[in-house]
Amino acid sequence: MATYIGLFETASDDDVSYDLKLGSDRRAINFMASHFGFFMINALNVSYLLFIEGYALRNIGRGAGKNFLHLLCLIGCFFQMCSCITSMTRYNMNDEFSSFWANGGTIFSNMGFAFCNISVSVVWFANSDNRKRNWLMTAIFFIVAHNVNSVALYKSWDDKHFVPFRPVVAASAVYQTIAIGFTLYSINKGSISVKPSVASKDQFARLCQVLIAINILALACTGLLHMPMFTYPETGWIYVTCVVFCKLLGQMDFAALIGGETSPLLG
Questions:
Q1: Can you say whether residue 150 is alpha, beta or left, with left for phi > 0 and alpha for psi between -120 and 50 degrees?
Q2: What's the rounded Cα separation, in Å, for the pair 69 and 251?
Q3: What stretch of H or E contains 176?
Q4: Alpha-carbon distance 251 to 197, whole Å?
Q5: What is the DSSP letter of 2?
Q6: What does the alpha-carbon distance between residue 103 and residue 113 come to, in Å, rounded to a whole number?
Q7: How far is Cα 158 from Cα 146, in angstroms, rounded to an integer?
Q8: Which of 39, 70, 40, 65 is nearest to 53 (CA)?
Q9: Backbone angles phi, psi at 141, to 5 degrees
């Protein structure tokens, strides 16, 4: 019996070597379904952050007892949801390379990755005397760099389509994985002090190990399989690991104002 969605069917810009041909209805259906999976993962992220961390627990925000990094994650995940909507719109019309919807989606996605990259960057400056200034400079860098990528994509759209944007996804995933790995190293080394009321040192270390493994698996799926159903939903895992990581990271002494700490990075 013929099916509309091929779980293991491959796709790329090359019609010769892959199953889902450019312009075909089957390709549009499969890509729309995979982007819907990506959308739902971030819808879950946004719902968790907004309603559980934000409304129920009152943990999101700036100031004492608040997790500012989760606010950044919320913004990033929301931007990615908007990007997924533009992608689903393109494939629902079977107009994969619609300039308006594609470039709009890239702008949203670039901003989504930018805010998540910014959120994990606080770990680099845990022991810096100028950590607030350094983090702000890093934030500005990511905002500018991701917007430059969106402009570059727009200007080269007719010739290159999504080619300039794709490395951004991989680079963001690798960057966040390295940040988590650096946190694991710093915890084991003792240069980052884990707040006992949040988690034990061993708990945070094991969490970092799990998140690194998930990110590596996501990178492998997106980079090696060329299967839409194992590419776009798995990209959503990068947002999930960022949210989970920042749940603890955002409560560390160096990252947020908790219990009246002095010289906070944020808040």
A1: alpha
A2: 9
A3: helix 166-189
A4: 9
A5: -
A6: 15
A7: 20
A8: 70
A9: -60, -50
Per-residue pLDDT of the chain (267 residues; tens, 9 = 90+): 678 888 899 998 877 788 999 999 999 999 999 999 999 999 999 999 999 999 999 999 877 678 999 999 999 999 999 999 999 999 999 999 999 999 999 999 999 999 999 999 999 998 888 888 899 999 999 999 999 999 999 999 999 999 999 999 999 999 999 999 999 999 999 888 888 888 999 999 999 999 999 999 999 998 888 899 999 999 999 999 999 999 999 888 777 543 334 444 444
Which tokens belong to 241? 């690991």
Closest Cα to residue 30, out of 19, 17, 16?
A: 19
In which residue are the tokens 């040192």 written?
201
Structure tokens belonging to residue 62 = 């700036």
Tokens of 147: 């917007």
- Residue in the structure block whose two tokens are 């959120």: 119
- Extract the runs of DSSP E, i.e. beta strands, from the chain: none
Q: Exposed, middle or buried: residue 181 (CB in 10 Å: 0-12, 13-18, 19+)? A: middle
Q: How far apart are CA 68 and CA 62, in angstroms?
A: 5
Whether the CB-CB separation of 38 and 233 falls below 8 Å is answered with yes
- Asked whether the whole model's pTM tops 0.85, one would answer yes
Q: Which two tokens stand for residue 106?
A: 């890239």
Residue 79 and residue 68 in contact, taking contact as beta carbons nearer than 8 Å: no
Output the CA–CA distances (angstroms, integers) from residue 15 to 5, 20, 133, 157, 222, in the order listed: 18, 7, 49, 19, 19
